[in-house]
Every structure is written in C-alpha cells, then in structure tokens.
Amino acid sequence: MAKQFTTTEWNNINSLLDANPGKYGFPERVYGSTLVGSFNIRKLGSSLSRSADTWEFLARICKQYDLIAIQEIMEDLSGLNRIMELLGSEFGMVVSDKTGVYPGDAGIGERLGFIFRWKTVERGEVISDITFDRSKVLQIMAENYDAIHEVMEPYAKKYADYKAGKQGKPRNIKMPTFLSFIRQPYCVSFKIKGHPGTKSYDFMAINAHLFFGDYMSDRRQEFHALMQWIIERVKTNDRAYHPNFMLLGDLNLDYNNRLTDRVTVEESMKNYNKEGNLETDPNKRVNINFPFLDVHQGETDVFRTNARGSETFDHVGLFFRDDNTAWPTYDKNETMGGNETGPDYGVFNFVKLFHEALGVTTPISEMTTAEKKAFYGRFEHKVSDHMPLWFRMPLPK
C-alpha cells in the first residue's frame, strides 16, 4: 500500500487550501447561514490507523460544519474520539451502535454518527434507528411469497450444506423485494438555534449508509424503502417529533452516467413528489428535494462525490411540508448559489487539492491505470475514498 502523505506534503496541502479554499469547494462559514453536510470517512476506526497530520486534516474538514453526518465509523471509536479531541469542547457528537452484522457473527459492522457545533445546534431528545417492524415485514413477505420462496429454496439447501460442513457459506442472493436494511439508518432530532436576529428551526436528521451489494436491484430496493418510510413519516408530521426530515449519507445510488442514469433517478424523484402531493389536503403534501441530482449553476456536470470522480453516491435529501424558507423545493436547484447565505450546495474536492499540492503534472484524466493507482493509493484509504459534501441553509428571520 502506498505511503501516507509526509508532513512536508501536508504543509503544502494546507497552505494551498488556505490560499484559495473556494477553488476546491471548501465551504465558507457565513453569518446568517448554517452548514450541514455528510462525509463517508473510509473505515474510521483506530486512532493508530492514520498519521497525526491526517487526523488534523479530517478535523479541519469537520470544523467547518454546524452539523455533519459521518459514515463508516468502525466498532473502535478511538479514531472518532481523536477527531473530537482536535475539535475541542466547541463540538459534540452522537453515534449509533454497530449495525450491519449480528453480534458474534463474522463481518464488518459500522456505526453512524453526527458531529455538531454546540453554539449553533442543539440535539433533541429523540434518537432512534429506522427499521421496518415485524408486521410490515410479514406483509411484504405475504405479498411477495412466491418470488421469495423461489430464491430461498435453493439458498436454504446451500445453507444446510454449509452448516453440515460440506461447503463454504453461500453468497448473498438476489432478493425480489426489500425486507430489511443492511445497516439501520440512524435518526436524530436537532434544532438549529440560529443567530441573533434569526429564528431557530427543528428537523430530524437521518444518517444512512445504504447497500452496495452484488445486485443493482438490492440498492434500489433499499433506497426506495427508505424514501417511502420518510415520506409516510413526514405525512404524519402532526405526530412526529419534528415535521421536517433531512437525509444525509452514502446512498450508493448508481449515477455514473448522468445522461442515462439521471433519467431513471429523476423520474423516481418526480414520482415521489407526485405521490407526496396526491393528498387533497394541502397540509399533507410532501416536498422532496435532492439538490445533488441537479447541475449546480456554473458547473457542466453534477457533483461527483467519490474520490475517483465517477459517481454521486453521497446526497442530501430534504423532505418537508411546511413553508420552511431555509429548505428550497426542487425547482429552485438551478438558481442555488446566488445568495451569500444560501441556499447552496457543493463538494469539497480534496482530490483536486491533493493533485495540485503534490505537484502532479499529468491531468488525472490522462493518467495511465498504474499512475491512477499510485495517485489514489496515497489517500483513498487514509483520508477517504469519498469527498465531503455540504448544504448551506439560510437562517429564517
């Protein structure tokens, strides 16, 4: 594995970022607005797994936000605690238990967490995983019984052979329908306290790292199941703790080709908006917006969020019913960025920063396979293979 950046290289990286943060999409803190975001930090585990300079850089990123959702936190919390120590008492965190593997079974489970700035954000009382209860699962199984039986019968035979020591553990199968999340999304209530002269507002933040898996259908089933759960919860906002929900995280949407994949994903979004607005009662209509599915003004393509620049896995999704001026509807995406206090959105492109700071002369698009492997190998494991995204909300007055 390639060596981590040296202290000299980190000094070059930080100096270049200091000189022109906007060039790389590093979000500026602007009075009268709140910065919320998401960052999949690859296998954030032991505090010994990264260099001191790398921990400083990760903390520098997190420090820009009022609230940031973190994915891929490992069982070992010492790395996350290292970041919190560097951030200091100005910041707090809340983190889930390990999810994605049953206790005692082999496999890598993950935690989901939030880091937030105490001065501007207050954590509410409600904290919960998101699950489908047993009655709902039984209903899904009954409605898809034949299809489930068709794939489970051969799997059950293979599993019996595995238990008898006749073969290795069978691989995952292509399920015909959603039954359960691979990792339970994590939901926490927050209040944006605002600044003097502005109003506070409340929302539920959902942190999710959805299924990647062997089959594209598995990804879509999980995504649509989570979408439906949030929509139905927002429809009952008279009983929900907070009426508005924000989805943050690595959703593993297949979006590598904007011209072809956009049609599928955008049609799904429009259908969800249509479904949410079929209610005759205007007070039960749901607005849904995923800004990162649209091309930001001044850009030629949607923001890519993986380090390789090929996918938009990470997202911010807005689900709301009330007239919350801080959250734009999807038809406002093309004009975002016109006001200093937002709304606005972007990605901190540390790959571009590293490329320039390291003095690499060959453009990434022109690198050979070996050159790309060497370049990405310097940081994909020790910084991350995802880039942090941000969403700026103006504080209502």
What does it look like?
With 397 residues, this protein is of the alpha+beta class. The protein has a domain at 7-128 and 187-211 and 247-257 and 288-394: Endonuclease/exonuclease/phosphatase (Deoxyribonuclease I, Chain A, 4-Layer Sandwich). It is 30% helix and 21% strand. It has helices spanning 7-19, 52-63, 78-87, 134-143, 145-163, 216-235, 258-276, 350-357, 369-377; strands spanning 33-44, 67-73, 91-95, 111-117, 121-129, 186-192, 201-209, 245-250, 287-289, 314-320, 344-347, 389-394. The strands form two sheets. A six-stranded mixed β-sheet has the order 3-4-2-1-12-11, with helices on one face. The chain has a six-stranded mixed β-sheet with strand order 5-6-7-8-10-9, with helices on one face. Helix 2 (52-63) links the parallel strand 1 and strand 2 (67-73). Helix 1 crosses helix 8.
Task: Please write out the topology.
Layout: H1 7-19, E1 33-44, H2 52-63, E2 67-73, H3 78-87, E3 91-95, E4 111-117, E5 121-129, H4 134-143, H5 145-163, E6 186-192, E7 201-209, H6 216-235, E8 245-250, H7 258-276, E9 287-289, E10 314-320, E11 344-347, H8 350-357, H9 369-377, E12 389-394
Parallel strand pairs: 1-2, 7-8
Antiparallel strand pairs: 1-12, 2-4, 3-4, 5-6, 6-7, 8-10, 9-10, 11-12
Helix pairs in contact: 1-8, 2-3
Provide keyphrases for this structure:
397 residues, alpha+beta, Deoxyribonuclease I, Chain A, 6-stranded mixed sheet, 12 strands, globular
